């Protein structure tokens, strides 16, 4: 939607970010937990994979076009002026082990925009990419870094164990989630544990869940399908019985003959009490500040997955919100502790697989993928 005339975003203040008690220890514990997940899956599969969002369902090459004439508050950072950039899109699901798709969990969309000029966040100097890491739900699974680390320990204990038991539990969780939704509710916990409906991933709307700087302001990001080829897939069922890679088959089948287009939308913070930085589980009310379209993301029909594309993108790249312009620095405790976790994961995959994990300087780096 277009920007309402009544929106008055508040400027970022360092006081809005409050380090948690023992945040350094939480960072260490989370990094250690994620390393355990990576080490376990490497031990069992002889290949280093991501400690979360391990399974890929589609790899797309496309372009992101920033809209012309955005209101000043929305014309910030990457979106400061009209331009078109090449982009890479990775579709995934959340677990850190490779499971059959009928263990149905939340879906992710990670977008890497290439060739972006501007001042960088610390650790991203010399890069020309801007990453957006999103999931198909508006809020994060935990309010704080400490709670996130605790949840991760529970997940780590189940990594690569009992896939058939996980499939059974997923079926039970899906039934429970349907019952909750039948009375107008929704359970992020049930979905995370395998209760996500068995629906087409290309019909989903995706959210950053946690905030970023937006020039002088603060914002969350939404990526929503806007063409009929995608919107008609909202809640469309996908038969995953005896199809361990059914979601990938669905994505590849779609892009074999059709394209996709999404709007990239920004929700600016207008009230720090109603839209906190340090509670990632709290949804920012859209009646206070709606999501406003700032760009279009397009992908033409293409081969949405191949071994060569997986080698170049899955193994050769990392999608990381800290690959960012200074104008879009990640905010809040969840983002702060993730920074070192992403660095650990990158090193682990590169060392075990013998494949450099690096940022592309231009789209030519992906020619032939």
Describe this structure as you would to a colleague.
The chain has 369 residues and is of the alpha+beta class. 28% of the residues lie in helices and 19% in strands. Strands 1, 2, 3, 4, 5, 6, 7, 8 and 9 form a nine-stranded antiparallel sheet that branches. Strand 6 and strand 7 form a beta hairpin. Helix 1 runs parallel beside helix 2 and helix 1 (23-45) packs parallel to helix 8. The protein is globular.
Provide tags for this entry.
8 helices, 9 strands
Can I get a quick summary?
28% of the residues lie in helices and 19% in strands.
Main structural class: alpha+beta
Distance between the termini: 35 Å
Estimate what percentage of residues fall within beta strands: 15-25%
What's the number of helices? 8
> Quick check: average pLDDT?
89
Low-confidence stretches: 164-183, 190-194
Q: What is the strand tally?
A: 9
What are the secondary-structure elements, in order, as H or E? HEEEEHHHEEEHHEEHH
Given the C-alpha coordinates, what overall shape results? globular
What's the Cα radius of gyration?
A: 19 Å
């Amino acid at each position: 939607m277009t920007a309402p005339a009544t929106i008055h975003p508040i400027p970022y203040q360092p006081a809005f970010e409050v380090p948690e008690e023992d945040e350094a220890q939480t960072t260490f514990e989370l990094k250690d937990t994620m390393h355990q997940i990576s080490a376990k899956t490497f031990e069992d599969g002889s290949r280093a994979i991501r400690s979360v969002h391990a399974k890929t369902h589609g790899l797309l090459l496309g372009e992101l076009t920033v809209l012309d004439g955005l209101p000043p508050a929305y014309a910030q950072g990457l979106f400061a002026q009209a331009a078109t950039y090449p982009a890479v899109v990775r579709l995934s699901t959340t677990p850190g082990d490779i499971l059959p798709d009928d263990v149905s969990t939340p879906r992710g969309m990670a977008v890497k925009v290439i060739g972006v000029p501007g001042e960088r966040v610390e650790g991203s100097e010399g890069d020309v990419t801007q990453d957006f890491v999103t999931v198909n739900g508006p809020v994060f699974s935990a309010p704080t870094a400490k709670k996130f680390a605790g949840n991760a320990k529970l997940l780590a204990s189940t990594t690569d164990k009992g896939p058939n038991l996980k499939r059974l539990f997923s079926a039970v969780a899906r039934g429970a989630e349907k019952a909750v939704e039948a009375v107008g509710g929704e359970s992020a916990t049930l979905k995370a544990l395998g209760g996500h409906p068995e629906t087409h991933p290309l019909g989903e709307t995706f959210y950053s869940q946690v905030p970023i700087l937006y020039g002088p302001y603060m914002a969350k990001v939404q990526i929503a399908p806007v063409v009929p080829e995608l919107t008609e897939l909202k809640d469309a069922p996908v038969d995953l019985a005896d199809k361990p890679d059914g979601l990938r088959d669905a994505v590849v089948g779609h892009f074999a003959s059709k394209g996709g287009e999404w709007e990239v939308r920004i929700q600016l913070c207008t009230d720090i009490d109603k839209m906190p930085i340090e509670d990632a589980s709290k949804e920012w009310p859209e009646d206070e500040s709606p999501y406003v379209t700032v760009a279009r993301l397009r992908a033409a029909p293409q081969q949405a997955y191949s071994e060569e594309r997986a080698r170049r993108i899955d193994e050769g790249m990392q999608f990381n919100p800290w690959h960012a312009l200074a104008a879009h620095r990640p905010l809040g405790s969840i983002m702060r502790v993730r920074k070192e976790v992403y660095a650990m994961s990158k090193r682990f995959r590169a060392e075990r697989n013998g494949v450099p994990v690096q940022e592309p300087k231009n789209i030519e780096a992906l020619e032939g993928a």
